[in-house]
Design goal:
This protein has a single domain, classed as Rossmann fold. Helix content is 39%, strand content 21%. The protein is built from 9 helices and 8 strands. Strands 1, 2, 3, 4, 5, 6, 7 and 8 form an 8-stranded mixed sheet that branches. Helix 5 links the parallel strand 4 and strand 5.
Length: 287
């Protein structure tokens, strides 16, 4: 039996270089579609409540994409609070500014193109610093988590949330092919597809205290547009990566469509959240 080719983890991850993609605006549409999914709204806002987000807070999000979470934050911190989003992609940054203005939140959010491993903010600048669905895309998450902790005020909150691709479940009759597609594509598309389960220890390693964990489930029984797009991309990538033939991938997708028509579609994916407190007395952060 021939040796299986060695996989370079994350070698095909477009989110590591959005601006150099043939159609970067497509990824803007993907993020906004995901942001509108009811299950995503629930788990995203649940995490922000878990982090203790309050009116008047000054909050940072690193890797903010098109600003979906920043817009939620702006509503939660209110007119006395402020949100800063840092994003390496200039395409995403421009889209985030436009979308915030369209929703009447432009004066509460400052979007900046920047590197999460070298934040241009003074130490202790924010009440809360977050990275959501970021760490699975980076080779070494430690510098990002260290920077989140650095720019957070003593007594402030550092929070992480990420999906864990090892928990992606689809009710499909061809379980072997489903597993091959899910695991093979994840290993090629993400640096660490199992990042969600590591978040608690990431915060402990940075010296944060009172670390707490939360598990949420993205559940879809209605075949939401984001889920459909995700599975179509999985099938396409499976063919490109040699994990399945074009015919097998087409059969796989056809069975999914049959399950939807029969009212028996089910897909779930676990999201893990972790929050910790930066040691030291909390300073008055009222604006």
């Amino acid at each position: 039996m021939p040796a299986r080719p060695r996989v370079n983890a994350g070698q095909n991850d477009p989110y590591r270089a959005i601006d150099s993609q043939p159609d970067p605006e497509m990824f803007t549409r993907i993020l906004e579609s995901r942001g509108k999914a009811p299950s995503q709204i629930r788990l995203r806002r649940g995490f922000l409540r878990f982090a203790g987000t309050r009116p008047g807070w000054d909050v940072l999000e690193v890797g903010c994409g098109t600003g979906v979470l920043c817009r939620d934050l702006a509503r939660m911190v209110g007119p006395r609070g402020h949100v800063t989003g840092v994003e390496p992609s200039r395409v995403f940054t421009q889209a985030a500014r436009r979308l915030a203005r369209e929703e009447g939140l432009g004066d509460r959010i400052d979007f900046r193109a920047g590197d999460g491993t070298a934040l241009r903010f003074p130490t202790g600048r924010f009440d809360c610093a977050l990275a959501v669905t970021v760490l699975l895309h980076v080779p070494d998450p430690r510098p990002i988590v260290a920077e989140l902790a650095r720019v957070t005020r003593p007594g402030g909150v550092v929070g992480l949330q990420d999906q864990d691709m090892g928990t992606l479940v689809l009710d499909h009759p061809d379980r072997a092919l489903t597993q091959r597609i899910f695991e093979g594509v994840a290993r090629r598309n993400y640096v660490d597809p199992l990042s969600g389960r590591t978040l608690g220890r990431r915060l402990v390693e940075q010296g944060l205290t009172r670390v707490r964990l939360r598990t949420d489930v993205y559940q879809d029984t209605a075949y939401e547009p984001f889920t459909r797009s995700m599975l179509e991309r999985r099938a396409q990538h499976a063919v490109e990566f040699g994990l399945a033939s074009a015919r097998a991938a087409a059969r796989w997708m056809a069975e999914i469509e049959r399950s939807v028509a029969a009212g028996r579609f089910l897909l779930t994916l676990n999201f893990y959240g972790a929050v910790g407190i930066k040691p030291g007395a909390r300073k008055d952060s009222s604006r």
